[in-house]
Amino acid sequence: MKIESSAYFYATNGEVLKNLEDLLSFLNNVDEETFFNHVNSEKNDLANWTRDILNEKRLSNKMFKTINRDEMAVYIEERLEKSGEGGVDKKSVISKLVEAIS
Amino acid sequence: MVEGKIFGVVALKGGVGKTTVCANLGTALAIEFDKKVLIIDANFSTPHLGLHVGIVNPEHSLHKIIEDEYSVFEGIYEHALGFHIIPGMLAPEGLDYNKLKEKIEPLKEYYDYILVDSSPSLNQEMAATMSASDEVLVVSSPDYPTLSSTLHAIKIAKEQGTDIRGIILNKVRKKRFELNPKDISEASDVKVLASIPDEIKVQAALAKMIPIVSFSPTNEVSHIYKKLAADLIGEKYRRSLFGRKKKKKVKEEKDEKE
After folding, report:
1. What is the C-alpha to C-alpha distance for residues A20 and A18, in angstroms, rounded to an integer?
2. Which residue of A has its CA nearest to B184?
3. How many CB atoms neighbour CB B60 within 10 A?
4. Band of residue A89 on the pLDDT scale cut at 50, 70, 90
5. B148 and A28 in contact by Cβ < 8 A?
6. SS3 of A22, please?
7. Residue ranges per structural domain of chain A
8. Contact flag B180-A101 (C-beta cutoff 8 Å)
9. Under DSSP, is residue B91 helix (H, G, I), strand (E, B) or coil?
């Protein structure tokens, strides 16, 4: 789904998010301070954006229930995998690599 | 007299940015934290550290020090950015890489930090760097082939009994298809110290043969290098708007010397 640039998520560290993939990458890489600027006990900008702009109501409901970024990332990964946008099973590849080298 | 620390900068795969990391960390430690820093090109088969800092065809190089052609002190260049460097040149076959440690160990008395840029191949050159280092920094990038190489490098360091300070994740594009720091940290059981974005300005800096920390001090990548340098030496780093002033100061000092 394409959205207007005015509806992009503009994070306080300058990152611009346009879709769920960007959001997942943001959660996996962002520093704690920036994350806390958007998600804390008083607000959850990421869940709001996911609900209001991306129209992902079920996903946003899960996101509203946590302030843990890893948990949020798992929800988004699950959503992407369900929609067929997931790729190879990353964890399986990594564990095979670890096994091969150890 | 100081008791310095030797960091080996290693990667078991070419192209991940090991030399870029070495040059920029050295620059950050010198110009941002006023440390006495020596960077050494111990990549004997593909020595490129000099090209990252404006040294194209050095008269002196590390392999000649190892061959006892002159003393280690005679092979040191003072760089305008504040650090010192022993550049490398293509080494002849049969060089005794094991002498690296005995040659650079005494320099710990004179430098706060010595960064050794290693060979990207699993060979005696890399083993020599690991053995000469107090701690190693493993440079990686967020893809499966590099993760595989990173796991190998970590395994070798552990087998050699060299302490691993952490992984520096370079060329990060923050794409979903990439491995993320958590994946890499969990797979390797080693902390990811920094994620450095794949930023075009790094290439622009390389074209000018100036580390990005000096070329573009307020760039995000430069801030990350300075934060990483601070973390390595147990100091605090606060982003400053005066990066350019520091660069200007360095330039003024360079002009004075000339």
Report:
1. 7
2. A94
3. 16
4. confident
5. no
6. helix
7. 5-101
8. no
9. coil
Inspect the interface and report whether the beta carbons of B180 and A28 lie closer than 8 Å.
Answer: yes
Q: Identify which of B219, B174, B168 has the alpha carbon closest to the alpha carbon of residue B198.
A: B174
Which has the closest alpha carbon to B119: B37, B5, B18? B18
- Which residues does residue B197 pair with via DSSP β-bridges, in sequence order? B172
What ranges in B92-189 are assigned the alpha helix state H? Answer: 99-104, 124-132, 144-160, 181-188
B56 at A interface, C-beta within 8 A? no
Tokens 């990594």 belong to residue: A94
Q: Tokens standing for B154?
A: 């970590």
Please report the DSSP string for A44-84 in residue order. BHHHHHHHHTS--HHHHHHHHT---HHHHHHHHHHHHHHTT
B152 Cβ under 8 Å from any chain A Cβ: yes
Give the closest-approach CA distance of B100 to chain A in angstroms.
Answer: 28
Reported pTM: 0.75
Q: From the CA of A78, how many Å to the nearest CA of chain B?
A: 13
For residues B72 and B42, what is the distance between their CA atoms, to the nearest angstrom?
Answer: 13
Alpha-carbon distance of B175 to B194, in angstroms, equals 16
- Does any CB of chain B come closer than 8 Å to the CB of residue A80? yes
- Greatest distance between any 2 Cα atoms in chain B: 52
Question: How far apart, in whole angstroms, are the C-alpha atoms of residue A74 and residue A63?
Answer: 10
Contact of A88 with chain B, judged by CB distance below 8 Å, is answered with no
Nearest to A28 among B151, B182, B186 (CB): B182
Nearest to A101 among B144, B155, B181 (CB): B155
Q: Architecture of B5-257 per CATH?
A: 3-Layer(aba) Sandwich (3.40)
Per residue in B175-220, pLDDT (tens digit) is 777 899 999 999 999 999 999 999 999 999 999 999 999 999 999 9
Question: What type of residue is B253?
Answer: E
